[in-house]
């Protein structure tokens, strides 16, 4: 065992993208314990300006920075976004117990209390916290912005060079040749333009939306988004609430406008089985968005005809059994919304 008699050190983060401060955190973890678990959050999210790198790409970038002896001591674990603090903590604890083989393993949690995003450090009673302290003014969001806004790839990499390990710069140089960066830059610009519209507001805006989860037999109705954010990604039908509508009325209207799905009002009311509010502060890249989701189960019947329209490039019925393999194709937290009603995971 290393310092303090710890058997494992745990580092939790999204690592989008891996920078010098996170490297200092990981190196401290390697000092404190003989084995280190790096728990990579947002592991199954679709590519987006906030999550440009897949789980495998982040693992590759971090491993490139470590020397061979360090790599042998580090294990990477994928952590799903569940937008529920209690369930997320259970997920992390379960992953560590499965990795170590025991619920009684001596684990030290290595991190830094920088702001509200670090509150998770207090959610693991029994795991002592080692705070590495401030490692300079390094922020992943600002680093991603530099990558998206620079006039050329090399200019963007030059802007990152003082805060990102050279091995990661080399990784990014190769990654930038893949067909993802141009789309991410375009979507980042569209989101920035939307945020700028509200810059003069006396209060930060809070948006209210609605979503409709519609099930028929063993299938669920999905759309493919036709506009940013999330253009080309899968989602449940939905949109913004109207001034003179209830949340339920807006959900039914958006469902009809985006998919052409329409039944008698009495049929829709009979099919409504549940409704829930999804309000995690980080659920949407647009900003603070609270959605009211309605779950309709029409039972065993022929699939109604549908067609994508309005903001939806496509509407289609998808077998619920096929959804787990499609998790990384969903916009924002829409897979989580489906999971909440359908019990996919």
From TrEMBL:
Entries under Pfam families matching the protein: CTP_transf_like, NUDIX
UniProt-listed PROSITE patterns: NUDIX
Transferase found in the keyword field: yes
Keywords: Nucleotidyltransferase, Transferase
Annotated Nudix hydrolase domain residues: 205-341
GO molecular function: nucleotidyltransferase activity
Gene3D superfamilies assigned: HUPs, Nucleoside Triphosphate Pyrophosphohydrolase
Record-annotated membrane-spanning stretches: none
Protein name per its UniProtKB record: Bifunctional nicotinamide-nucleotide adenylyltransferase/Nudix hydroxylase
Originating organism: Ramlibacter cellulosilyticus
Lineage of origin: Bacteria, Pseudomonadati, Pseudomonadota, Betaproteobacteria, Burkholderiales
């Amino acid at each position: 065992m290393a310092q303090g008699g710890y058997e494992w050190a745990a580092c939790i983060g999204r690592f989008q993208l891996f920078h010098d401060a996170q490297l200092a955190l990981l190196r401290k973890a390697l000092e404190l314990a003989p084995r280190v678990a790096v728990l990579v959050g947002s592991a199954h999210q679709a590519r987006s300006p906030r999550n440009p790198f897949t789980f495998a790409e982040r693992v590759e970038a971090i491993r490139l920075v470590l020397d061979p002896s360090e790599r042998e001591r580090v294990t990477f674990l994928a952590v799903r976004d569940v937008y529920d603090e209690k369930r997320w903590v259970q997920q992390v604890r379960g992953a560590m117990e499965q990795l170590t083989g025991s619920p009684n393993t001596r684990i030290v949690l290595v991190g830094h209390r920088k702001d509200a995003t670090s509150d998770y450090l207090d959610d693991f009673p029994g795991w002592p916290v080692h705070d590495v302290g401030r490692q300079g003014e390094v922020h992943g969001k600002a680093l991603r912005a530099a990558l998206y806004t620079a006039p050329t790839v090399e200019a963007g990499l030059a802007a990152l060079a003082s805060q990102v390990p050279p091995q990661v710069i080399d990784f990014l140089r190769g990654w930038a040749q893949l067909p993802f960066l141009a789309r991410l830059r375009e979507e980042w610009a569209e989101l920035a333009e939307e945020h700028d519209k509200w810059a003069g507001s006396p209060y930060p805006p809070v948006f209210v939306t609605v979503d409709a989860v519609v099930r028929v037999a063993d299938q669920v109705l999905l759309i493919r988004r036709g506009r940013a954010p999330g253009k080309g990604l899968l989602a449940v039908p939905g949109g913004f609430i109207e001034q003179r509508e209830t949340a339920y009325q807006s959900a039914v209207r958006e469902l009809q406008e985006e998919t052409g799905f329409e039944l008698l009002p009495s049929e829709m009311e009979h099919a409504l089985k549940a409704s829930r509010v999804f309000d995690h502060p980080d659920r949407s890249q647009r900003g603070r968005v609270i959605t009211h989701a309605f779950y309709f189960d029409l039972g065993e019947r022929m699939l109604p005809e549908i067609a994508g329209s309005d903001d939806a490039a496509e509407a289609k019925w998808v077998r619920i059994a096929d959804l787990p393999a499609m998790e990384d194709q969903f916009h924002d937290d829409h897979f989580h919304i489906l999971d909440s009603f359908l019990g996919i995971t």
